[in-house]
Amino acid sequence: MLAALLLHALAAVLAPVLVRWWGRQAFLVLALVPAAGFGWVLTRLPGVTGGGEVTETVPWVPALDLVVALRMDALALLFALLVTGVGTLVLLYCSRYFEPDDERAGRFAGHLTAFAGSMLGLVLADDLFLLYVFWELTTVFSFLLIGGSGTKLAARRAASQALILTTAGGLAMLVGLIMVGGASGSYLLSEVVADPGSGPFLVAGTMLVLAGAVTKSAMIPFHFWLPAAMEAPTPVSAYLHAAAMVKAGIYLVARFAPGFADVPGWRPVVLGLGVATMLVGGYRALRQNDLKLLLAFGTVSQLGFLMVLVGAGSRELAAAGLAMTLAHALFKSTLFLTVGVIDHATGVRDLRRLSGLGRRLPVLAVVGGLAGASMAGLPPLLGFVGKEAAFTALWAGGLPDRTAAVLVLTGLVVGSAFTAGYTARFLWGAFARKGGLPPTEPAELAHPPGPLFLAAPTVLALTGLVAGPASPLLEPLVAGYADRLPLIAPEAEKLALWHGVQPALGLSALTLLGGAALFAARRRVFRLQRRLAVGASADEGYWNTMQALDRLAVLVTGTTQRGSLPAYLGTILVVVLALPGSVLLFRAPWPGEWRAWDTPIQALVGAVVVIAAVLAVRIRQRLSAVLVVGVSGYGLAVLFALQGAPDLALTQFLVETLTLVVFVLVLRKLPKDITERHRPRERAVRAAVAVAVGLVMAGAGAVALGARTAEPVSVAYPEAAYELGGGQNVVNVTLVDIRAWDTLGEISLLVVAATGIASLVFLRRRTGTVDRLDPVRLARQEKRSRRAPRRHWLAASAALAPERRSVVLEVVTRILFHSIVVFSVFLLFSGHNQPGGGFAGGLVAGLALVLRYLAGGRYELGEAAPVDPGLLLGIGLLLAGGTGVTGLLLGAEVLETAILETALPVLGDVKLVTSLFFDVGVYLIVVGLVLDILRSLGAELDRQADEHDPIDATPGEVIAR
Questions:
Q1: Which end of the chain, N or C, is less surrounded by CB atoms within 10 Å?
Q2: What's the pTM value of the predicted model, to 2 decimals?
Q3: Class of residue 669 by CB neighbours under 10 A (exposed 0-12, middle 13-18, buried 19+)
Q4: What's the pLDDT band for 763 if we cut at 50, 70, 90?
């Protein structure tokens, strides 16, 4: 199962490349991925229908008891067949749906394949948190598929609407899953359903889980996002909004029903929302003129039907629900794909403009007719079998409450009549000859459908036709799940096409007659609907709510965010004094013994730091203030060194130096002096707050150090660092192995920070061009110049005006640059056993680039590092993250160091640890960050200054540009 998910992920990554190579034919290759999954699931059918299950567990984060737990029972197998089977056919359909030169195809192929893998993971997940991860992945990929390229406003609005609603429901579901897992004592889905526990905590968690299900499956009042999502291409509608994504909520309710159907509030929510959704969706579908919108509202109606069946909590309705779920996926996918063929061939989806298309496209008409007959519940289609089973179970009292069974049955009969009515309207609108309209001519068929284009809907329609008479063969699969629920109506029949003359057959006939009457009186029904139309709608309510939230956000922001950094910082510090400070003062266990310092040198360094901090407040020149602040930072580094922490001291020295450089680059755009003045009272208040916070933090540190009662976990670090991480430098091994997840998060933040800095500076595009020197034009300029040529110690120093050059700095840079770079590499590779590491090495290499920039300007920086910083950042993050996968392949856990020992002919015994590559990734990220800062705050600002004041530019700079 895990292999199938990884195969989908790999195919999704490669999909854009394959489409670029082979065009739309790449969809045929991508279809092999879900097809392989479909075949594998079929091979597990005998064992699962016999009462067994397939499980697979891979440890993920053992310390947090997180595992990749996959499980396939009868319910998961049925949904996996739908996901992979329909996914295969939809990908085949895409190979003819897109034009050969359609630029959207590559992105679409990757997103659709990734969605298929996410949906497969959702139905196979047995861990609650893994279930939520796949749940949100389907939401994200649905957003990308609905929004498309982002060029259409309607598509963007529909995508954001679906994302906001389903994400909000997903977050509620996450809280519910945590509460349910806590109440049951397990976070494995199978164990939670088997023994859910009890109490108000469980009830609240169950309602939150249902909130996620009803938003995902478009129950009212959240149903409006599904019709809006019809802005997506037809394959998306056929797969996500008929067979897969909207079924996620149905699957979740079906999965929880065996253990949670008797939880207070479950049946009123599921049955009430289900019946209401079926009636509202069917009623709205009767008046739609766009074929896709008609099917969209019909899907909303059918999802309400399915929600009632799978959530009722009885064996007979659960069996009918699974049969109806399969039937719905078959006929609704077929109908959406049929609309796609019509739209592709004619460019029209308005049923008022189509006429006589059935005679022009007879195969398509037969396919659409079979799917429509199944949706309406006509024999011998599978839709008839599912509807008959539902009516039979409810007539026999398939709910604990007989009155509820009667009300639900009445609602389903009326909703089924609506279904028959809008089915007739769809078939008539798509294929029939209409009076007053000329028939669609062959010349109007801009793209006549070929055999491969019709293959997917044909296979789906024929499957629905064959599955009706063969429905008894589905009984073992359905029973594998349904038998876990109580049998409330023992006289209910098993799945079959014919049970003789019985009340359910009469109800089916009644729904068909009602649908025929609604279709025959469609004009009067439409006029009545217009007369009874309500001014308000759920969609308008959603947008009004969003606008109200926007106005509230503006009000709150305008009230609290006044643009004063001292006010923000002062508020934070006062809260620190009021809450942690009060606890520290009155409740904290203060240490009984105090020691001011270990050596007098520490006191001396501390005094220097304090004096520097006071001077930083008093000095009025910005550059002097920055330098004094740097003295404080360097003082802390000395304290680290005195305490025996060379790694921390080295890192602090390097960070402080680079920080000073960044400050200097920024100060070029700021006035020389700090002109803002404050009244004495304001200065006194700020000083009091600052001193008080300093005392609180010092006290907190003292209390924390004196409050330890257990043995520190760090005691075991030296031994673990060598035995498990393969290194003697505890600090470095901790960063790249013991706490590698933290480091991965921190370097990800570095990448985000670099991107943010550059985005604020580069006005025209994210990555500025690398400023390179043109030596040919520069030589010609020097030859024509009257000045005597000066020796060039650096590659681009000639681009600087003579008054801006420093020969001493150029010579020093030329002598030291390569040595500094070599030293940075030494720190990188020695850091596992000696002070250093990827972070320190990257900082040293970054400072070497700083030296080149300060000595030779932006063109020298371009000569020193002619590479895009974003490339270094991306490669570094990929390398660091890929180390986790490497550890898995070598038998370790995620981001755990794997040690490789071998003997080489020249080098002898070699010991290699995989965390070294993690450190190389950190090294590249730090270098990329420094280079991005120099390009943005240095070279780009220089370029902008030259553009604004070209008179000051030297001839060499003009030539270099």
A1: C
A2: 0.72
A3: exposed
A4: low
Q: Give the burial string for 184-219 (b: 16+ CB within 10 Å, else e).
A: bebbbbbbbbeebbeeeebbbbbbbbbbbbbbbbbb
CA distance linking residue 146 with residue 153, whole number of Å: 11
Q: Which residues neighbour 774 within 8 Å (Cβ) at sequence distance 6 or greater?
A: 959, 960
Task: Report residue 381's pLDDT band, with 50, 70 and 90 as the boundaries.
Answer: very high
Label each residue of 197-221 as H, E or C: CCCHHHHHHHHHHHHHHHHHCCCCC
Please state at what angle helix 74-97 crosses helix 451-467, rounded to 10 degrees.
Answer: 150
| Terminal CA-CA length for the chain | 56
Supply φ then ψ for residue 377, to 5 degrees.
90, 35
- Position 788 confidence tier, pLDDT thresholds 50, 70, 90: very low
* 316, 317, 320, 321 alpha-carbon torsion, rounded to 10°: -140
pLDDT higher than 80, residue 960: no
Question: What is the rounded average pLDDT of the residues 4-20?
Answer: 92
Q: Tokens 């008539």 label which residue? A: 428
Residue 249's closest CA among 215, 300, 279?
215
Q: What percent of the chain has pLDDT over 70?
A: 91
CA–CA separation, 936 vs 861, rounded Å? 12
- Distance from C-alpha of 268 to C-alpha of 308, rounded to nearest angstrom: 10
Please write the tens of the pLDDT for every residue from 655-697. 999 888 888 888 877 787 776 677 778 888 888 898 899 899 9
Contact 372, 426 (CB under 8 A): yes
Q: What single-letter DSSP state applies at residue 44?
A: T
Nearest to 486 by CA among 397, 407, 403: 397
Angle at the Cα of 245 from the Cα atoms of 239 and 249, rounded to 5 degrees: 145
Distance of CA 669 to the CA centre of its chain: 38
Could you tell me if 326 and 385 are in contact, meaning their C-beta atoms sit under 8 angstroms apart?
no
CA distances from 381 to 329, 392, 467 (A): 13, 17, 7
Question: How far apart are the C-alpha atoms of 471 and 463, rounded to whole Å?
Answer: 11
In a 3-state reduction of DSSP, which class is residue 239?
A: helix
> What is the C-alpha to C-alpha distance for residues 431 and 96, in angstroms, rounded to an integer?
22
Name, in order, each residue with C-beta under 8 angstroms of 922's C-beta and a sequence gap of 6 or more: 735, 736, 743, 747, 837, 838, 839, 842, 876, 880
Residue found by looking up tokens 């002598």 in the block: 815
* CB 256 within 8 Å of CB 314: no
Decide the pairing of beta strands 54-61 and 66-72: antiparallel
The dihedral built from the CA positions of residue 558, 563, 566 and 572, taken in this order, carries a sign that is: positive
Residue 793 structure tokens: 């110690």
Tokens 């950190």, located at residue: 922
How open is the CA angle 318-400-397, to the nearest 5 degrees?
A: 70
Question: Which residue from 842, 858, 859 is spatially nearest to 927, judged by alpha carbons?
Answer: 842
173-197 pLDDT, tens digit per residue, is 999 999 999 999 888 999 999 988 8
pLDDT of residue 772: 65
Question: Exposed, middle or buried, 717 (CB in 10 Å: 0-12/13-18/19+)?
Answer: middle
Helix/strand/coil (H/E/C) assignment for every residue in 814-866: HHHHHHHHHHHHHHHHHCCCCCCCHHHHHHHHHHHHHHHHHHHHHHHHHHHCC
Cα(415)–Cα(302) distance, integer angstroms: 9
What is the spatial distance between Cα 871 and Cα 517, in angstroms, rounded to a whole number? Answer: 66
pLDDT for the residue numbered 775: 61
Is 429 in contact with 354 (CB distance < 8 Å)?
Answer: yes
Which DSSP category does 564 fall into?
A: -
Q: Are 754 and 928 in contact (CB under 8 A)?
A: yes
3-state SS, 58-111, equals: EEEEHHHCEEEEEEECHHHHHHHHHHHHHHHHHHHHHHHHCCCCCCCHHHHHHH
The span from the CA of 158 to the CA of 230, in Å, is 8
Residue 100 identity (one-letter amino acid): P
> b/e map of 22-44 (b: 16 or more CB within 10 Å)?
ebbebbbbbbebbbbbbeebeeb
